Amino acid sequence: MKTTTISARFGALALIHAVLMDKRMLGDTISSEDGPLSKLAPSDRARAQSLASLTLRHMPRLDVILDEFLERKPPLRALNALRVCAAEIVLDGIPAHGAVNAAVEIVRGSNKTKHLGGMVNAVGRKLGALKFDSLQELPAPQLPKALRGAIVKAFGEKETVAIEQAHLERPPFDLSLREPSKAAKWAEKLEAEVLPTGSLRLRKSVQISALNGYEEGDWWVQDAAAAMPVRLFGNIKGKRVLDLCAAPGGKTMQLCAAGAKVTALDLSPERMHRVMENTRRTGFRLHMEVADVMTWEPDGLFHAILLDAPCSATGTIRRHPDLPYVRPSLDLKPLLRLQQAMLKRASGWLKPKGQLVYSTCSLIPAEGERQILRFLECNDLSEDNIDVTALGLDSSWKTSKGALRLRPDYWPDLGGMDGFYMALLHKQ
């Protein structure tokens, strides 16, 4: 059974507040050196993050339950304390007395809400009588209106509901291996499952850094869908490959593991530092550049270029349940212009017959299918027909143009995947 300290609960509340009020992503708050989790013990930090994610993932349904017990909506601090309390009791199976006492302590810790301690205690006790089924009977929360409309238009109402249902599931940890041929060996060591694409999937919630092979750099965490763009290249051993927008480095390490001579580029020094840390742990050697794709100039052409472009990240909501609250609108125009400009820049750095993989973790066709269609209309590259079955994927996931479209509701029996679009292009 999970345990939660009062420090972890205060941390979870601070994270939720930053999402709802400051429109700040969980990851940004968590990684902040002077953030609310900076002084917590590692176990409390992990629990605070887990509890905040759980609460945000189910918040609309938790609010439906809480509304039954509330005469009026309380101040945000008290409401969030009740949301966290409800998540612990109904979803995590935490004993009600501990979760309720903590919620009462939290609201009494502020002059603005200390008078609500009795109300929080009363509502919390009622929550203690609820079962997990009480929440499961409620429909999955709908995506923000603009985003939902775009997804319904692209895939249909039934498929959109399936995507929304998939967002309720905690995503498993997937691993990419330094030596993919040893997948069976590592699956046995780590009690993992080998997925059809070759990634490993951990079923249990574990401390990643404590697992066998982490310190040695034998593997790294990377969603199975995110591992697919690099695999589109085929054999790149000894080839000169450019990884654009490289951070945090999962695809970079895949390229290195495949034997490529890698140049990794990212605009952010902080994010590139993560690439450096990850490649140092895994022992890969490569060239790294902190630069803007729009102004950087290479010292030569490349056999292959990976452009995992900046995007709306709407395919990662199951992994980032804070995203709909931080970015509820769908203003894609700046992103679309940037993606198109990056494609044009990257295509000019290819050798003759060179390959370019364009990918986004977006569910919106404007950032994927339509972006590539527009690009090919006025550039001298051609689109290849991806052999998806050779990659271990369902043939129906291929688009009419031969690209690959992945969705969170795919692989439901295996634990799902992130949403992605990827296309393989080549120069004449």
**Biggest β-sheet description:** 8 strands, mixed
CA distance, first residue to last residue: 59 Å
**What is the string of helix and strand elements?**
HHHHHHHHHHEHEEEHEHEHEEHHEHEEE
Provide the CATH top-level class of the largest domain.
Alpha Beta
Round the Cα radius of gyration to an integer and report it: 23 Å
CATH superfamily of the largest domain: Vaccinia Virus protein VP39
Query: What's the CATH architecture of the largest domain?
Result: 3-Layer(aba) Sandwich
Query: Could you please say which CATH topology of the largest domain applies here?
Result: Rossmann fold
Helices, by number, come to 17
- Sequence stretches where pLDDT stays below 50 over 5 or more residues: none
Helix fraction?
Answer: 40-55%
Net shape: globular
| Strand percentage | 5-15%
The number of distinct structural domains comes to 2
Specify the structural class: alpha/beta
Q: What is the averaged pLDDT score?
A: 94
Number of strands: 12
